[in-house]
Amino acid sequence: MKWQDVLSDKTLQDLPYKIELNEYGKIEMSPASFIHSLLQGEVAKRLGWLPKGDGKK
Length: 57
Hints:
This protein is an alpha+beta fold. The protein has one domain. Helix content is 39%, strand content 11%. Strand 1 and strand 2 form a beta hairpin.
């Protein structure tokens, strides 16, 4: 993929995050912000507090 392809692709317009092309023409997303990473950690911690089911129905 080349930048002209990215610019002409309607599905890639108005994204809420940044993208870039790597050396192979593949789309890569920018890393998450620091606050986003903190919130991910908080969610993971709280999920760890939930009781575990036995998997039986």
